[in-house]
Hints:
Elements: H1 8-20, E1 25-27, H2 28-31, H3 35-52, E2 56-60, H4 73-87, E3 91-98, E4 101-106
Parallel strand pairs: 1-2
Antiparallel strand pairs: 2-4, 3-4
Amino acid sequence: MxxxxxxxxxxxxxxxxxSFGAQRTLNLRELLPSAAEARLxxxxxxxxxxxxxxxxxxxxxxxxxxxxxxxxxxxQEILALMPSLRRKGIVESxxxxxxxxxxxxxxxxx
Length: 110
């Protein structure tokens, strides 16, 4: 019997799951929300994680390959949300983790 080798993408997802786990991962790609729904869901989720989690969290937006023009609408919406959440004291920083995900460092609750 021939075993299939795992793809690089599968390995990447496995590492993300091991690093962040389900409690620290918001997968917007699976939910297929509108941009407004994604923004609301992300803000609500990040606020809740700020209270329960002191570590970084992972927000999976998807790359936007299926979006018009190949521009990730959800990704752009979430990136546009980050400065507002930083001003509100919810997010300390964020960085691109992969073309379809963002690592967010939450601001400690005072």
